[in-house]
């Protein structure tokens, strides 16, 4: 069982994160600071790990290896319950092949003298009276920690009153971190998955979750993302330590909705069919025009033109061949041909990109906003990165970055506590963070080009599964059905004038180049 809160008074968690380095040969790791912050958050969350805040010691960008090692030793000697040490930063090897934890002032040429050799951690663990000692190491070469601690397991077990030593490491060689442009809002890959696992839990497992159970699921998730395999080593019963409550057991996934998904989500072949998908107008009311007004509306001119072309071809074939069946077939073929021609020629997203099918569907919907004073850009690149904004919309209600995605309709979409979004068993946290980062980058570039602050709202337009509510706001990103994108935009409050729209659009067109050359 997990210790009661009262029992934590004899335990200590030591979290060390180094994100900024004086030696330029060590690149800064902003994600390390986020990792320490997020891990502390789940440790002290009473619904999860339940550590009291005063039993968690955080060292952010520490320097002076002697002072750090001395503090670790002192805290370890004062701990008789659970001793947890976490480190995230650069890991190096000493000339003797020993793992060394880099600090803010570590010299890359003398890590054994200016960093914390893992032998010092091993010594502190050996001399600590803690019943359970656990180390989580997120750095390059962290697998060496397995060797230095676990190989001494018998000695530790013989000379201290403990139940075991447990070590969890990110990688034997190079640990993985997100690209530099994403690190401002992201954790390291290993810690990010660990924190996410604690927050979301493991469906089908008991409550609480042990270190050993967490490791198996963590390894599965990291492998699924193509990231380095973690490692673990434990002695005695340390792997059975109840580390956290199982959030999946506390907050079971909601049952699938009994109402069917919007039919146009998967069957829409015409860019105008979203007029039938938005049956609820509370979020963004639209005017219900009468049939005569729809007939005369210029927005539907291409549909009437298509009908006339099909009818003309059908009549011509019927007269020439005296066959109503052939006339009907010819009319249908001509209507299909006109649909394909317009989809290919009116889209600014190249037709040869198969992945852009949903982008073209969203683009078709957004084109209708132009008559309401909106301007749109499609498939725009963010300079200095491989990222792309599928659709940038500038209009009376603001500036929007819309990413279009096709998801498997068989898997349920649901949001969870702690700002989490799941598509089936897959957490979409990284996808949301990416969308938020792209919108922030676009806002910075447009603001710089315009000379004043512009905010770009991030969103995901999803095609495939049903979205449980009209709009989900998760991690500051709006998630909605692709068929509702137009009503979502027009339903917001007006905030820009015509002059604002034109100036912002011109700046966006300059600062965000096309992702693909025009054919």
From TrEMBL:
Coiled coil: none annotated. Keywords: Membrane, Transmembrane, Transmembrane helix. Residues 250-286 are annotated as: Disordered. The chain crosses the membrane at residues 303-324. PROSITE patterns: NERD. Residues 265-281 have a biased composition (Acidic residues). Residues 354-469 form the NERD domain. The keyword Disulfide bond does not apply. Residues 252-264 have a biased composition (Low complexity). InterPro entries: Caspase-like_dom_sf, NERD, Pept_C14_caspase. This is NERD domain-containing protein.
